[in-house]
């Protein structure tokens, strides 16, 4: 197995996941640190991936705790596991936030289906709410409310830890990228 091919394959998997809801890497963990230095992890949907720039894109509600956490500390880990391939990808890097009204948020919002846009309406993430009972129609929500709370997280990877579980002889490799996303170092390491 050539390390350059493994790197290319990992990024191809991520690009496929961003375009395909059935991919094993479509849902990944975004791990950050809160204001009390406690680790925080949550599942996010991979919305875009670009191997040339080593970047990923996620969407969030700007009222969420992670939005504030990433303002204070943009260093994150993204962790994904595909059970079919028995492959773990752990990426470390930084996040740049694009808030409501920014070019990045506007472009991403326009690509969202209406049902997804509506997930950004309603109360702030984590607040207590009551689900409607059977038979009751929910109150109509204004899509503009959601747009005013919609943010984009642009992640730029600096490292990739590739780990494949095998029947025998697990494999692990580390990859490093420079500031423009070019592969700067790769090596096999003990699993």
Rg calc: 18 Å
What order do the helices and strands follow? HEEEEHEEHHHEEE
* Structural class assignment: alpha+beta
**Strand coverage percent:** 35-45%
Major sheet characteristics: 9 strands, antiparallel
Q: Which spans have pLDDT < 50 for at least 5 consecutive residues? A: none
Per DSSP, the total helix count is 5
Q: Estimate the helix proportion, in percent.
A: 10-25%
Number of β-strand runs: 9
What is the arithmetic mean of pLDDT? 92
How far apart the termini lie comes to 15 Å
User: Could you say which overall geometry the principal axes of the C-alpha atoms support?
Assistant: elongated
Notes on the structure:
The chain has 191 residues and is an alpha+beta fold. Helix content is 23%, strand content 38%. The protein has 5 helices and 9 strands, in the order H-E-E-E-E-H-E-E-H-H-H-E-E-E. It has helices at 3-19, 65-72, 103-111, 114-117, 143-147, and strands at 27-33, 39-45, 48-50, 55-61, 75-82, 87-98, 150-164, 171-177, 183-188. Strands 1, 2, 3, 4, 5, 6, 7, 8 and 9 form a 9-stranded antiparallel β-sheet that branches. The longest helix is centred in the N-terminal third of the chain and has 17 residues, at 3-19. The radius of gyration is 18 Å and the shape is elongated. It starts with a helix and ends with a strand.
């Amino acid at each position: 197995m050539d390390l350059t091919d493994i790197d290319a394959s990992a990024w191809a998997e991520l690009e496929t996941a961003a375009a395909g809801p059935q991919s094993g890497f479509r849902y990944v963990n975004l791990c950050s640190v809160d204001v009390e230095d406690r680790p925080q992890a949550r599942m996010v949907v991979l919305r875009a991936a670009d191997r040339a720039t080593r970047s990923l894109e996620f969407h969030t509600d700007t009222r969420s705790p992670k939005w504030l956490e990433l303002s204070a500390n943009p260093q994150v880990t993204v962790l994904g596991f595909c059970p079919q391939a028995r492959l773990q990808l752990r990426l470390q890097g930084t996040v740049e936030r694009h808030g409501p009204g920014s070019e990045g948020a506007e472009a991403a919002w326009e690509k969202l289906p209406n049902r997804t846009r509506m997930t950004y309406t309603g109360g702030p993430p984590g607040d207590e709410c009551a689900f409607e009972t059977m038979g009751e129609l929910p109150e109509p929500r204004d899509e503009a409310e959601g747009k005013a709370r919609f943010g984009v997280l642009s992640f730029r990877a600096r490292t990739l830890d590739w780990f494949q579980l095998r029947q025998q002889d697990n494999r692990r490799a580390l990859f490093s990228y420079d500031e423009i996303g070019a592969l700067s170092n790769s090596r096999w390491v003990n699993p």
